Amino acid sequence: MPTLKIQIAHFAGGIARYLPRIRGLQQREKLGTASLPRHGRQPREPFDYYLCQRLFYDCAGWSGHGHAAKHGSEWVRLGLAELPIAQTVFATDYPQAAQDSQELADYVAAIRAIGNDARTILDGTNAQRLISNLRERVGGAQFLR
User: Fold this and answer.
1) Among 39, 59, 131, 139, which is least packed, fewest CB within 10 Å?
2) How far is CA 43 from each of CA 2, 9, 10, 84, rounded to the nearest angstrom?
3) Which domain holds residue 46?
């Protein structure tokens, strides 16, 4: 489907760390696999189009009792440096392991403190790009502002 959008939890398992390898494997002519039926197939668009336009990445799956704010915000900061910020959403599977509401509040505050990019993710702007009728579904809620 040309308009299909896919949301993947946990920064897609750290996919950004593997991008140089993945991009290298796209060079089918150099690798000698272009003539192989399954390896030589080409998608309609270049790989990065799908990575930056069709995939959405959730960044709120940190699970660590007592350290969610400290360690989780560092994980999110690093992930935002590797993947398109406009394709990153927050909390499709969170709170995953929060022990109490204060731990959850501290985590969200630590993410917000990362800067404007993180605040854009927290306020639901990117989630609305993923789910076009999101505000209607949640009754016009203000998300995490």
Assistant:
1) 139
2) 11, 24, 25, 21
3) 6-137
**C-alpha to C-alpha distances, 140 to 6, 95, 116, 136, nearest whole angstrom:** 23, 21, 22, 6
How confident is the model over 11-46, as pLDDT tens digits? 888 888 888 888 888 888 888 888 888 777 778 888
131 falls within a domain? yes
Joined together, the tokens standing for residue 33 give 């696999």
Residue 130: count of CB within 10 angstroms of its CB: 17
- pLDDT, tens only, 42-89: 788 888 888 888 899 988 756 666 677 888 888 888 888 888 889 999
Model confidence at 105: pLDDT above 60: yes
Domain annotation covers residue 145:
no
Task: Answer for the pair 66, 49: CB distance below 8 angstroms, yes or no.
Answer: no
Taking alpha carbons only, the member of 127, 65, 66 closest to residue 93 is: 127
- In angstroms, the Cα distances linking 61 to 64, 79, 106 are 10, 12, 15
- CATH number of residue 103's parent domain: 3.20.20.140
